Amino acid sequence: MNAHDRRLGAVFSALADPTRRRLLGRLSERASATATELAAAEPVSRQAIVKHLQSLDEAGLVRPARAGREVRYALTTAPLEDAAGWMTTVGAQWDRRLARLRGKLEAGK
Amino acid sequence: MSSDVTREVDLPASPEEVWEQVTESDQLGEWLEADVELEPRPGGSGSFRFADGEVRRALVRDVEPGQRLAFTWWPLTGEDVGRATSVTITIERTDAGSRLRLVESARARARAVASAVA
């Protein structure tokens, strides 16, 4: 497994969780936020939010930056584009292949 | 956002005929546009040489004749080398023939690679 593969795997597991998807949604609406700000809108503890933010950081989806005493998290989009790119490429490949399969079976009738 | 590519296609052929297209190397190679060698049994290996030069290896994980074929595959060439994904093809009978459902999943990738190299 290469580095690219590991990163993409981390992106997919990060996105598998509904709380983490909501956090990404909130971060997409503003420049940055602290764990405390994000926890205010979630039914889980600040500590749980910090853990989710760590998973998102490991996947490269958010970037923490220290601002004085607090850590502010901001969204990064490159890994999402990477994952979306994979789905687009592979989806288009299967569309072509399945169209050929269908054509082959229609021709055989 | 999901990490799976899912496709469904209705085919004018019986599940038995579609199964041949999916599991017989020569038939599969025609619609994949690749030189294919596939052993359609659990633990069987597969090799795919595509027209664009990409070469893939596969490990068959699950076979239910006429219904389900699942394998993990990974490229030996190109920038995605070693990046394994799992492919599951299921076939069901319909009034007009068959419905083929295909899922290629990157989510099971790490686990799939671990079992492939074990």
List keywords for this structure.
heterodimer; A: 109 residues; alpha+beta; Arc Repressor Mutant, subunit A; three-stranded antiparallel beta sheet; 5 helices; 3 strands; 66% helix; 13% strand; B: 118 residues; Alpha-D-Glucose-1,6-Bisphosphate, Chain A, domain 4; seven-stranded antiparallel beta sheet; 7 strands; 22% helix; globular; disordered C terminus
Characterize the quaternary organization of these chains.
heterodimer
**Annotated CATH homologous superfamily of chain A:** Winged helix-like DNA-binding domain superfamily/Winged helix DNA-binding domain
Shape of chain B: globular
Number of domains of chain B: 1
Strand content of chain B: over 45%
Q: Count of DSSP E strands of chain A?
A: 3
Strands of the biggest beta sheet of chain B: in what spatial order? 1-7-6-5-4-3-2
Number of helices of chain A: 5
Shape of chain A: elongated
Q: Which fold name corresponds to the CATH topology of chain A?
A: Arc Repressor Mutant, subunit A
- CATH class group of chain A: Mainly Alpha
How many extended strands of chain B? Answer: 7
> What is the radius of gyration of chain B?
14 Å
Low-confidence runs of at least 5 consecutive residues of chain A: none
Structural class of chain A: alpha+beta
* Helix-strand pattern of chain B: EHHEEEEEEH
Rg on CA atoms of chain A, Å: 19 Å
CATH class of chain B: Alpha Beta
Q: Major sheet of chain B: size, sense and barrel closure? A: 7 strands, antiparallel
What is the number of helices of chain B? 3
- Can you list the strand order of the major beta sheet of chain A? 1-3-2
